């Protein structure tokens, strides 16, 4: 039944690094992002985890971020979402189920440069029956044509953009400039991996998402920006309120001010 207490609680005993959240003290419960799933949906996600445990790839966001997005999307009926970085399709599945629950067709455009990852994600999206709700697109997030494709699929500018792609400083900085311009006024751009710890994910060694976010926000004072857990240096650091050591950055694009008179 939906909300079955046996669901993700079993992961508390799994030593794999991807299950770190479930092993934290007090987290012996099923978070709503999982308990909200129907039995068929949970079966797909459970099998997705089993397959990627065996053969990878592993790189999905963890419970703190997807749970935050769960409340944000469903609480505000966000119907136009662009995701940069699909990996094996974890968040595409969960965001897709949110769109289906709200009966929002063509609500998620998920972009990845790797054709193998796109193939894996499409297979799981098809198995989940989400083809009418999610588009897995192969392409570069630095190509303006990708923005045009997202706008065409979504039927307008994205209201929420989730960036979890290369983690490289230069690429992330370019993504921010390019995609912020396409974000609808009043919309939100969410950056995963803004912490000092996650800076090590940058294969170029140039400071990763943390540096790109810090520089971008200094040059865009018109935007409202905020970072959570950006000072975390390791997964073993003391856990603040937001428990993910990778951190998250938020960029809110303000609505145009009404003219006087």
User: Sheet bearing the most strands, described?
Assistant: 7 strands, mixed
CATH architecture: 3-Layer(aba) Sandwich
CATH topology: Rossmann fold
Structural class, by secondary structure, is alpha/beta
CATH superfamily, please?
Answer: Vaccinia Virus protein VP39
The end-to-end distance, rounded to whole angstroms, is 57 Å
Number of distinct beta strands: 7
Total DSSP helices: 9
**Uncertain runs with pLDDT below 50, 5 residues or more?**
none
In helices, the fraction of residues equals 25-40%
CATH class descriptor: Alpha Beta
Mean pLDDT: 94
Largest sheet: spatial strand order: 3-2-1-4-5-7-6
Rounded radius of gyration (Å):
18 Å
- The coarse overall form would be globular
Order of helices and strands: HHHHEHEHEHEHEHEE
Taken as a percent bin, the fraction of beta residues is 5-15%
Oligomer: single chain
